[in-house]
């Protein structure tokens, strides 16, 4: 497939917006830890990985603009809340609970590896190429999250209990990552977003459980419900308006400004 | 809204007056070396504190491996480095052995003169003609 069929363009934009928005909002949430992470080294590492998330979001927004002729800054900062396509998990405020931040990153990264893996096998070559580059960096982020889950799970004192509480709290939200975007079936059958076998959910569940068990912790994951909360179709949690107001504070001063 | 709201809320929290010291044996120092190109030497970049080798490598990669393009990062537990003592150990000889210094070979001037020599240039031109 050298040219993307016109009818696949809107569903692909939806799918890539969901990926970009997940990364953009998660990167923003994680960047909140700059200066506040538990140890200096981790502060720099976590901030630096948050920049990777933002860089991936920027690359995806650019790619979308190549399909639609839109402007990446407007996509990132100029949409109404209902136009964002991120999952509820990335909107979650961690309230500076390190275990929650790590659990959120961990569950998202395992999902992201699979999503990028599918995109990297896309029948649409420019998309596959972009996804392969992102996948290489995503492995670093995943390794970081896995290390922390295992470390906190096996640590002394209250760390395992706090990590367990975070996993318990986030597990029901995490399956919301799997909500399909509009028109995903068409992308799947055309090979633009090829299926995983076994299913993406089964692969995710197994890889998450594998690390959680290594950490000596538990996670109660249930297959995605038929009725999602609707993050992928623009239903936002009450937290989102505040988050977006903060995120777009500078942009809104002068939307047309060149940076 | 200047600072993030979460941070503002965080500012109202009560903190311990002193930062807690890291638990003994919790973190160890590692020295970090980066290599900018394959085949070039690994250069000391700095150090990180980490709980173990894996974490040290992760920190080193994020700290020292990203502000310049580099191809490899090494971490070495500081405790693994065997070193001389500033006060007790003699590293450099005290007797005059300046003849061992790798300096004083001032051939630059001679070389430039040699290379700019007209006769040599002409000789080389002739040499090339003859052999090719």
Any descriptors?
heterodimer; A: mainly alpha; Ferritin; 11 helices; 64% helix; B: 132 residues; alpha+beta; Ubiquitin-like (UB roll); elongated
Strands side by side in the biggest sheet of chain B = 2-1-3
Determine and state the CATH class of chain A.
Answer: Mainly Alpha
CATH class of chain B: Alpha Beta
Q: Which consecutive residue ranges of chain A, at least 5 long each, have pLDDT under 50?
A: none
Q: What is the overall number of helices of chain B?
A: 4
Largest sheet of chain B: 3 strands, antiparallel
Separation of termini of chain B? Answer: 78 Å
Helix content of chain B: 25-40%
User: Helix proportion of residues of chain A, in percent?
Assistant: 55-70%
Level-2 CATH architecture of chain A:
Up-down Bundle
* CATH H-level superfamily title of chain A: Ferritin, core subunit, four-helix bundle
> What proportion of the residues of chain A form beta strands (DSSP E)?
under 5%
What is the element string of chain A, with H for helices and E for strands? HHHHHHHHHHH
Percent of residues in beta strands of chain B: 15-25%
Q: Tell me, briefly, the overall form of chain A.
A: globular
Overview of this structure, please?
The complex is a heterodimer of chains A (259) and B (132). The N and C termini of chain A lie far apart (36 Å). The relative contact order of chain A is 0.16. Chain A is mainly alpha-helical. In chain A, helix 5 runs antiparallel to helix 6. Chain A has helices at 9-31, 40-68, 72-77, 88-91, 98-120, 125-154, 159-174, 184-189, 200-214, 239-247, 249-253. Chain A has one domain: Ferritin (Up-down Bundle), CATH 1.20.1260.10. Chain B is α+β, with helices and mostly antiparallel strands. Chain B has one domain (23-131): Ubiquitin-like (UB roll). Helices cover 32% and strands 17% of the residues of chain B. Chain B has a three-stranded antiparallel sheet, covered by helices on one side.
